[in-house]
Amino acid sequence: MKTCLLLSLLLLLASFGSRIAFAADIPPGHQSTYVIVHGAWGGGWAFKEIDRLLTADGNCVYRPTLTGLGEKSHLARADINLSTHITDIVNVILWEDLHDVVLVGHSYGGMVITGVIDRVPDRIKRVVYLDALVPENGESWQTLRPSPPADIKAVNGFYVPPWVKDFSAKPPHDMPHPAATYTEPVTLTHSTPPKIPTTYILTVDEGKQPEDDGFFSSYQRAKKYGWETVIMTGDHNVQWSKPKELVTLLETKTGQASR
Known about the structure:
259 residues, alpha/beta, Rossmann fold, 35% helix, 16% strand
């Protein structure tokens, strides 16, 4: 009996010691809570590597998938709209009881985080728009991009991208995106722009000019707002092509030491 008690005590101390060692390994300043919102057709899976790198630096990362996409594609319905996706992220913040959030929105995710900021501004300490849309009150994805790319087909209430031929293929992969998210305008009740420190990152393909980028108008709006703006050389999906560089930029712009 005494032997078992001694063994249990030793195991407890070892476990406690390992936790102390782990905490000591966390670089100072690298302890932010990130909520990352993916773009159209994607899912939280698209930021898995970013999650890994940020977590390795001692951060807490949430990368929820919007309703009807990714692992939630079984919930896909034609009536899913922008409000649905805004509520998805608001509920993650509320139900996980998150505070001092670094909210990141990529591409279409900019539409979503704009609505989230308006709903729970007190929970957010910093915002990062990553090559993303920046709407004002009453504007929609359609307002900012009057016509979807010609190769994107509207099928039964969804926009289907040409780069995915077989939606039954082994995941992860992009999925059809609910078209109602394209037409519903964002409704904002607080001031625009929000009074939260915000950074806009425009990714520009090497050899091209910022003016030629599809998100340049959102970048210009960010500059008009007086936000911090950054031009990063890279394609639209730097979370895949330049994950380390993106994480370094995110941590630097959120007041953390660089990698």
